[in-house]
Amino acid sequence: MKPEEKNFEKYDQFTLTMIPGAFAKKMRTCLIFQAFRFAVINIKMLVVVSKSH
Amino acid sequence: MARLVIMGGGVSGHTAATFARKWLGKEHEVIVVTPNSQWNWIPSNIWVGVGQMTKQDVVFPLAPVYKKAGIDFKQAKAVSIHPDGNADSDTPYITIESTSADTAGQTEEITYDYLINATGPKLNFGATPGLGEGTTLGEHTVSVCTADHAVHANEELRKIFDKAKAGERQKILVGTGHGMCTCQGAAFEYIFNIEHEANKAGVRDMLDIKWISNESFMGDFGMGGLHMKVGGYVVSSKLFAESLFAERNVPWLIGAHVSKVEAGKAHYEQLDGTIGVEEFDFAMLIPPFAGVGIKAFTKDGSDMTDKIFAPNAFMKVDADYTAKPYAEWKASDWPRTYQNPDYKNMFACGIAFAPPHLISKPMKSVNGTPINPTPPRTGMPAGIIGKAVAHSVCDMIKNGADAKLHEASMAEMGAACVASAGKGLTSGTAAAMTVYPVVPDFETYPGTGRDTDYTFGEIGLAGHWIKHILHHMFIYKAKLKPGWTLIPE
């Protein structure tokens, strides 16, 4: 069984949702990818802030 | 000369006071009345609650900041408002009671020309018997609502970790402590930080961690949930939230009103009428919020609290409070100027204003118990509203009482939120979210009620970096350091 599939059998309520696989998890802490996402999220947040004032 | 009195020195009150001081000439007075001697960056209390920050990291003394800015600071709690004055004078005033150590309990009257109510909430632990913050308000549960609460929560959490290390299996329960709570996000962030710290401490396998919430579905957050664009799909926050919990092996109990807490036991009722008991060794349950309980009196001393305040003790403003069914709720029901309808020199901002109704769909259990999250009004909206109100008051002082008021409707305003899962710069993953607008507007955005170009959620380390930056940036801004006005609310 793949690691990401382990939790599905722990509770019934888990079986109806999604659990990230190894690639998705890796990208969450990949410094290069996250540096790019950091810029994107900041721009998006700044747009929301500017639209709210 | 005009005198502006601001009751409350939290995010909204502090923002209103500091901008009013900046915009008003020295001939006008700005007075802040707040029971706390220190300003607290509340979002970082979560990190205090897991021992990753100290209390000193998240608070600073207000007195020197206000002295430097030219704001008169009264460490006291507001007790009553007299908008028409009294038998001897028509000048409106408030009464305050000192909370400073050297003058505790002494009362004083402060006259005003303009009044801003930014008191924030009363943490209504009393609504659920047995609910508390672990020291003076009950020993069964802890809280992270204040820095002191969070310090104590961490002490109790460490005892749980020590027992787990000694081989004793422990049950942790985190969530909301009443059917009408708001601020699910704080509990949401705290449970993931506990889970992260447990992994770091090597005790995760010895802990059963469970979520309990008054939300009718995961990811409601008191905003009726939200839809965001992820991977080319428009996805409900339900799937987003459930995934975070399932990934961390944290089961959930939702649609739950905690009715009573005893030692190691939380009694609850669910929407389907189920009555149950959840056992715990450690529980952090957020209390419901209410207004702080300020009274209002007429000139002859008669009580008119119910004219100025809603039944939940929050101040009435320019919202449409007409009772109507959920299907008829509109974005336009929400206030725009936060001016009291009866007294034009009185405003309320942040948590202190009475919302017209819930944002989430109202729910009752089959036994008739209301179980639904109340609307969030903290953080970014509180700051923006505080600034808009300060702007209105300054214009009224400078240009006359008929000056055009500034508007900041929560139905036209977004909010950014970062929920951390750890504090590391290279480990842990945060959920970074924005929602636009906070109150869904189904006339402007048919379908989801929000603009899905600006409503998004993402999980990753970048969120941690943003959370760190926000922590330092907003404390810098609150201290009024050079360039503070350039930092948005």
Give an overview of the whole structure.
The complex is a heterodimer of chains A (53) and B (489). Chain A has helices at residues 22-29, 31-52. Chain A is mainly alpha-helical. Chain A has a domain at 20-53. Chain A is elongated and about 45 Å long. The termini of chain A are far apart. Chain B has a domain at 3-123 and 289-399: FAD/NAD(P)-binding domain. Chain B is built from ten helices and 24 strands. Chain B has helices at residues 11-23, 45-48, 55-58, 62-69, 147-165, 184-201, 237-247, 305-308, 380-399, 461-478; strands at 3-7, 29-34, 38-40, 59-61, 72-82, 93-98, 107-111, 114-117, 122-123, 170-176, 207-212, 227-230, 233-236, 252-253, 256-262, 265-270, 275-279, 282-286, 289-290, 295-296, 346-348, 415-419, 430-435, 456-460. In chain B, strands 1, 2, 5, 6, 7, 8, 20 and 21 form an eight-stranded mixed sheet that branches. A four-stranded parallel sheet of chain B has the order 14-11-10-18, covered by helices on one side. A three-stranded antiparallel sheet of chain B has the order 15-16-17, with no helix packed on it. In chain B, helix 1 (11-23) runs parallel beside helix 9. The radius of gyration of chain B is 22 Å and the shape is globular. The A-B interface holds A 7-8, 10-11, 13-14, 16-20, 27-29, 31, 33-35, 37-38, 41-42, 44-45, 47-53 and B 239, 242-243, 246-247, 249, 251-252, 380, 384, 387, 412-416, 426-427, 429, 432, 434, 436, 454, 456, 458-463, 465-466, 488-489.
Instruction: Report low-confidence residues of chain A grouped into runs of 5 or more.
Output: none
Strand content of chain B: 15-25%
CATH secondary-structure class of the domain at 3-123 and 289-399 in chain B: Alpha Beta
What fraction, in percent, of the residue positions of chain B are helical? Answer: 10-25%
Determine the mean pLDDT of chain B: 95
- The unreliable regions of chain B are none
Report the average pLDDT across residues of chain A. 91
> How far apart lie the N and C ends of chain B?
29 Å
The structural class of chain B is alpha/beta
Q: Compute the separation of the termini of chain A in Å.
A: 50 Å
State the total count of DSSP E strands of chain B.
24
